Records
---
Amino acid sequence: MRYKMISGFIMLVVLISLIYVYEHNETSQKIIDWPLVEKKSEVKLKELPNEKLFNQLYTGSIYEWIGKTSDSLKREYGKPERQDLSAYGYEWWVYSDKDYYLQFGVEDGTIKTVYGTGDISIEPFEIGQTYKEINQDIAFIKEVSYLEKLNSYQFHLTDEEIKARPLIKLSQDVFIQLYFDTIKNQLSAIRVLTGDILLKHRPYEMMYRGHLPKVKELTDKEWRKVEKGMEKQIFDITNIFRKQFGVDHVSWDDNVSKVAYAHSKDMENNQYFSHYRLDGSGLKERLQEKDVYYLVAGENIAAQYPDAPSAMAGWLNSKGHREALLNKQYTHLGVGVYRLYYTQNFLGKP
């Protein structure tokens, strides 16, 4: 069977307002990130001769956590800053400070995935390392296979995905996604995950024989926990990215987060993707309705990314969106996530 991906998508609006002056600039970019269409196929999976196992190269502590217990994680790092429910059956244990950010995905007491950015131990790589340097040591390939009992899976990466988030097979059941800043051509983040978690995320087009793991259907209450976690994750990662580029951090704004959440929910409920509601009102009107005052403001939106880190990678790799992420004029940020619709509202306050 083949999974074909539909485009995740992101959009930006920049709003500059001094009292009632309003100017906006809008760009959009399609990002392939989330397959929702299944088609039957009789194509036979093949073993790839150029596929290698690189586990002897990886000495950074981030890889060693896969398969370890949450108790050992707590002994090493202490109590997590937060425990955020994910949409895929595991819980994110979040550890961060001004220099680094780590999320450990824990399922049934076992670490199944790790995402990290900032000052973290990921030898033989390092955050900020160039694509060319890494690609000289590891030849990224377009087809990566995974065997699980009687089930066979093969991930197919596009040219764009090879540049932005190549997939490396670390062992028979562990994979690495490298997230590159495609504008600077530098490594911006890393994710290590087991094969079953990779199948639940389905971030690439995939051929398979056998069965796909089922993802639990969430209740509205569980979804809200997931959404609140992703809102904080986007906020934290935004500030790590800003620090990497020498930009001051932004502060969390609860009122603006409510504005952002309402827009994400409205887009999902009414099945549209725009900075403008169906009645034509935009960010300016939404902020005015909640009596939000500002000197400058901007908005990033995204949809159909499997989680917050992948949405952040999409924004960073779009020129207009990264301008909002790294804008020195912004002092505050509100984030609103509803299901897989994401909204960032930036403000510059006096």
Note: Residues 220-244 form the longest helix (25 residues).
---
Amino acid sequence: MLLFAVITSITLFFFFNVGIFELLGIEYDSWKSILLFYGLSLIADAVVTIVLMYIKMNCSKVECNFRRLHEFILRIVLNFTAVYTIDECMSSVRISFIAEVVFAIIISTIDISMTVNKRDSGNPRSG
């Protein structure tokens, strides 16, 4: 049952992202190139997360909304840099500049919404 749940989750995640690829007009040569792209994307996302954690630890406390805005903008820039670099290194995946920007915004929005949900679930709001 657990194996089925894991395979279903991975399949849904994979086809959701392939659907985004189709909507953005991202071209790829094979499924192998998409898997390599995702592998490199996971590594790049780990680097982005480490950089953001380092910056958070070394910055002074500022207003929460202001800090979230800066984190969102920085996450977009770092994700765009990662997607651009992966696109330049892989000849089997072709992404237009606009698609790179939109893809970075989508990835950043999903990342921010997941981190906000993690923070909010630990601290329930008082009524």
Note: The chain has four helices and two strands.
